[in-house]
Design goal:
The chain is built from two helices and no strands. By secondary structure, it is an all-alpha fold. The N and C termini lie far apart (93 Å). Helix content is 49%, strand content 0%.
Length: 65
């Protein structure tokens, strides 16, 4: 039983040391992995020319349909 306690204590101690040493990169990773995402910025661009439907387009000038 003592062996199990020492193994658990050793793993917990090494885990704590690892976490304390690498806490900044771990915090950044957790923030990037599980943090909230920002809403994407939508940019509406004005059309370059006014849009018309095909039903209202004038016939071509050469007389073809």
């Amino acid at each position: 039983m003592l062996i199990y306690f020492l193994v658990a204590f050793t793993l917990a101690a090494w885990g704590a040391v690892y976490f304390l040493y690498f806490r900044e990169p771990l915090r950044d990773w957790f923030g990037n992995r599980f943090g909230r995402d920002r809403a994407p910025e939508l940019k509406e661009l004005p059309p370059e020319e006014p849009r018309t439907s095909f039903a209202r387009m004038p016939p071509p000038k050469d007389g073809r349909p």
